[in-house]
Protein backbone atom coordinates (compact mmCIF):
# COMPACT_ATOMS: atom_id res chain seq x y z
CA UNK A 1 0.00 0.00 0.00
CA UNK A 2 1.34 3.40 -0.91
CA UNK A 3 0.97 6.47 1.23
CA UNK A 4 -1.39 9.18 0.06
CA UNK A 5 -1.88 12.72 1.32
CA UNK A 6 -5.20 14.49 1.77
CA UNK A 7 -5.37 18.26 2.17
CA UNK A 8 -7.91 19.31 4.84
CA UNK A 9 -8.12 22.37 7.07
CA UNK A 10 -6.83 22.37 10.64
CA UNK A 11 -10.26 22.26 12.33
CA UNK A 12 -11.32 19.20 10.31
CA UNK A 13 -7.96 17.53 11.09
CA UNK A 14 -8.51 18.12 14.83
CA UNK A 15 -12.07 16.67 14.65
CA UNK A 16 -10.75 13.71 12.65
CA UNK A 17 -8.13 13.07 15.35
CA UNK A 18 -10.76 13.18 18.14
CA UNK A 19 -12.99 10.85 16.15
CA UNK A 20 -10.17 8.37 15.50
CA UNK A 21 -9.31 8.33 19.22
CA UNK A 22 -12.93 7.78 20.30
CA UNK A 23 -13.37 4.96 17.76
CA UNK A 24 -9.85 3.60 18.48
CA UNK A 25 -8.80 3.60 14.85
CA UNK A 26 -5.84 5.21 13.19
CA UNK A 27 -6.52 8.03 10.71
CA UNK A 28 -6.01 5.92 7.57
CA UNK A 29 -8.35 3.14 8.68
CA UNK A 30 -10.95 5.70 9.82
CA UNK A 31 -10.91 7.49 6.43
CA UNK A 32 -11.13 4.13 4.63
CA UNK A 33 -14.14 3.05 6.77
CA UNK A 34 -15.82 6.44 6.19
CA UNK A 35 -15.49 5.99 2.43
CA UNK A 36 -17.01 2.47 2.60
CA UNK A 37 -19.78 3.70 4.91
CA UNK A 38 -20.84 6.53 2.58
CA UNK A 39 -20.65 4.21 -0.39
CA UNK A 40 -22.76 1.47 1.25
CA UNK A 41 -25.42 3.73 2.77
CA UNK A 42 -25.66 6.16 -0.12
CA UNK A 43 -25.61 9.07 2.32
CA UNK A 44 -24.23 12.26 0.89
CA UNK A 45 -21.91 13.84 3.51
CA UNK A 46 -22.68 17.31 2.12
CA UNK A 47 -26.36 16.87 3.07
CA UNK A 48 -25.41 16.27 6.71
CA UNK A 49 -23.87 19.73 7.06
CA UNK A 50 -25.90 21.88 9.46
CA UNK A 51 -28.69 19.26 9.65
CA UNK A 52 -30.05 17.92 12.88
CA UNK A 53 -30.09 14.10 12.98
CA UNK A 54 -33.58 14.20 14.50
CA UNK A 55 -34.79 16.07 11.40
CA UNK A 56 -33.27 13.37 9.24
CA UNK A 57 -35.03 10.70 11.31
CA UNK A 58 -38.31 12.64 11.02
CA UNK A 59 -37.88 12.79 7.24
CA UNK A 60 -37.20 9.07 7.19
CA UNK A 61 -40.32 8.52 9.33
CA UNK A 62 -42.37 10.53 6.83
CA UNK A 63 -41.01 8.40 4.01
CA UNK A 64 -41.89 5.21 5.89
CA UNK A 65 -45.40 6.49 6.69
CA UNK A 66 -45.85 7.49 3.07
CA UNK A 67 -44.69 4.05 1.97
CA UNK A 68 -47.12 2.38 4.39
CA UNK A 69 -49.99 4.55 3.15
CA UNK A 70 -49.22 3.57 -0.43
CA UNK A 71 -49.11 -0.09 0.58
CA UNK A 72 -52.41 0.33 2.39
CA UNK A 73 -54.01 2.04 -0.62
CA UNK A 74 -52.61 -0.33 -3.24
CA UNK A 75 -52.69 -3.66 -1.39
CA UNK A 76 -54.55 -3.69 1.93
CA UNK A 77 -57.70 -1.76 1.00
CA UNK A 78 -58.31 -3.72 -2.23
CA UNK A 79 -57.64 -6.94 -0.33
CA UNK A 80 -60.08 -5.90 2.39
CA UNK A 81 -62.67 -5.01 -0.27
CA UNK A 82 -62.17 -8.40 -1.94
CA UNK A 83 -62.68 -10.16 1.40
CA UNK A 84 -65.81 -8.05 2.04
CA UNK A 85 -67.17 -8.87 -1.44
CA UNK A 86 -66.39 -12.56 -0.96
CA UNK A 87 -68.15 -12.52 2.41
CA UNK A 88 -71.24 -10.89 0.87
CA UNK A 89 -71.22 -13.43 -1.96
CA UNK A 90 -71.01 -16.23 0.61
CA UNK A 91 -73.97 -14.79 2.54
CA UNK A 92 -75.97 -14.51 -0.67
CA UNK A 93 -75.17 -18.10 -1.68
CA UNK A 94 -76.08 -19.36 1.79
CA UNK A 95 -79.40 -17.47 1.61
CA UNK A 96 -80.13 -19.02 -1.79
CA UNK A 97 -79.24 -22.45 -0.44
CA UNK A 98 -81.55 -21.99 2.56
CA UNK A 99 -84.39 -20.93 0.26
CA UNK A 100 -83.79 -23.96 -1.98
CA UNK A 101 -83.73 -26.32 0.99
CA UNK A 102 -86.93 -24.80 2.38
CA UNK A 103 -88.60 -25.17 -1.01
CA UNK A 104 -87.54 -28.82 -1.25
CA UNK A 105 -88.74 -29.50 2.30
CA UNK A 106 -92.12 -27.91 1.52
CA UNK A 107 -92.44 -29.98 -1.66
CA UNK A 108 -91.49 -33.10 0.27
CA UNK A 109 -94.02 -32.27 2.99
CA UNK A 110 -96.76 -31.72 0.39
CA UNK A 111 -95.90 -35.00 -1.29
CA UNK A 112 -96.02 -36.85 2.04
CA UNK A 113 -99.42 -35.28 2.76
CA UNK A 114 -100.68 -36.43 -0.65
CA UNK A 115 -99.36 -39.95 -0.04
CA UNK A 116 -101.02 -40.05 3.41
CA UNK A 117 -104.33 -38.96 1.87
CA UNK A 118 -104.05 -41.65 -0.82
CA UNK A 119 -103.27 -44.32 1.80
CA UNK A 120 -106.18 -43.17 3.95
CA UNK A 121 -108.53 -43.32 0.96
CA UNK A 122 -107.28 -46.81 0.13
CA UNK A 123 -107.78 -47.95 3.74
CA UNK A 124 -111.29 -46.50 3.75
CA UNK A 125 -112.06 -48.34 0.49
CA UNK A 126 -110.69 -51.57 1.96
CA UNK A 127 -112.81 -51.08 5.10
CA UNK A 128 -115.85 -50.30 2.98
CA UNK A 129 -115.25 -53.36 0.82
CA UNK A 130 -114.76 -55.50 3.92
CA UNK A 131 -118.09 -54.28 5.30
CA UNK A 132 -119.81 -55.09 2.03
CA UNK A 133 -118.20 -58.54 1.94
CA UNK A 134 -119.25 -59.17 5.51
CA UNK A 135 -122.85 -58.22 4.69
CA UNK A 136 -122.77 -60.47 1.62
CA UNK A 137 -121.38 -63.40 3.65
CA UNK A 138 -124.02 -62.90 6.35
CA UNK A 139 -126.68 -62.79 3.65
CA UNK A 140 -125.33 -66.00 2.12
CA UNK A 141 -125.22 -67.66 5.54
CA UNK A 142 -128.85 -66.73 6.16
CA UNK A 143 -129.82 -68.13 2.77
CA UNK A 144 -127.90 -71.33 3.57
CA UNK A 145 -129.62 -71.55 6.96
CA UNK A 146 -133.01 -71.15 5.35
CA UNK A 147 -132.10 -73.73 2.70
CA UNK A 148 -130.96 -76.22 5.36
CA UNK A 149 -134.11 -75.63 7.36
CA UNK A 150 -136.20 -76.08 4.23
CA UNK A 151 -134.37 -79.33 3.37
CA UNK A 152 -134.94 -80.62 6.93
CA UNK A 153 -138.57 -79.73 6.70
CA UNK A 154 -138.92 -81.59 3.46
CA UNK A 155 -137.13 -84.65 4.82
CA UNK A 156 -138.97 -84.78 8.07
CA UNK A 157 -142.29 -83.00 7.59
CA UNK A 158 -143.70 -83.74 11.01
CA UNK A 159 -140.39 -83.33 12.82
CA UNK A 160 -140.55 -86.83 14.26
CA UNK A 161 -136.80 -87.20 14.64
CA UNK A 162 -136.32 -83.71 16.18
CA UNK A 163 -133.84 -82.74 13.49
CA UNK A 164 -135.46 -79.38 13.06
CA UNK A 165 -134.94 -78.43 16.71
CA UNK A 166 -131.35 -79.60 16.67
CA UNK A 167 -130.55 -77.58 13.56
CA UNK A 168 -132.30 -74.48 14.93
CA UNK A 169 -130.30 -74.80 18.15
CA UNK A 170 -127.10 -74.98 16.10
CA UNK A 171 -127.95 -71.76 14.23
CA UNK A 172 -128.86 -69.75 17.29
From TrEMBL:
Q: What is this protein called?
A: Uncharacterized protein
Q: Could you tell me which species this protein originates from?
A: Flavobacterium sandaracinum
Amino acid sequence: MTKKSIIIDEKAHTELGKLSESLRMNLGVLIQEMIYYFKKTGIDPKDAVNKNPSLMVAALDRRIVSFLKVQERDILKPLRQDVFNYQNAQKEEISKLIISIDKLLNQHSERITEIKKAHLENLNKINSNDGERTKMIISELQKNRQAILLICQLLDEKNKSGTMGKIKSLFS
